[in-house]
Design goal:
Layout (H helix, E strand, L loop, with lengths): L17 H20 L4 H4 L10 H20 L27 H20 L22 H27 L5
InterPro entries: DinB/YfiT-like, MST-like
Pfam family, one: MST
Keywords: Plasmid
């Protein structure tokens, strides 16, 4: 059994302002996901233990695309590819590891997208709505940044739980 990395601390319990609380919890979950991958071999990172077929490294790649999709393509309307499939048809393509995907390259892609997300959120207010253009069309109500942040928290919380299960099945490590 691999010794797990100590869990990152939760944000301080005194935080009350959404502009501090939401990013602090989002960063907590981002760190949690990376920590849950620490210590897994390349083989374990690429091995699925569940019928759906996703792998721990594929999940990290998916989360990098989720960051890009909601913050860059969706909220900021940047002209970036929001999905792994250039046509955006295959909703599962961002989970698929390509031969050139390595643990280091997927982590770097994830960290890059997180840095872009932080840049975008730091320059906006929580009441700002997503720009129209790339991610959202004029015939739909664009979400606020606060809504996107809350959506991202549930996305990360759900996937951190998935990684709990995958990690326990891989090497017996159970964690927070």
């Amino acid at each position: 059994m691999t010794t797990p990395t100590p869990p990152p601390p939760e944000p301080p319990v005194g935080l009350a302002e959404p502009d501090e609380l939401l990013p602090a919890f989002l960063d907590h979950y981002r760190d949690t996901v990376l920590r849950k991958l620490d210590g897994l071999s390349d083989e374990e990172l690429r091995t699925s233990r569940l019928p759906s077929g996703w792998t721990p490294l594929g999940l990290l790649k998916h989360l990098a695309y989720v960051e890009r999709r909601w913050f860059r393509w969706g909220f900021a309307a940047e002209k970036v590819r929001a999905y792994a499939d250039p046509e955006g048809r295959d909703g599962d393509a961002d989970w698929v590891l390509e031969p050139h995907d390595t643990p280091a390259s997927v982590r770097e892609f994830f960290r890059h997208e997180v840095a872009c997300s932080r840049r975008i959120t730091a320059a906006a207010r929580y009441t700002d709505r997503a720009r129209l253009g790339e991610g959202f069309e004029a015939d739909e109500e664009p979400p606020t940044l606060a809504w996107i942040m809350a959506h991202m928290l549930q996305e990360y919380a759900r996937h951190a739980g998935h990684l709990d299960v995958a990690r326990e099945l891989a090497d017996g490590v159970v964690g927070e």
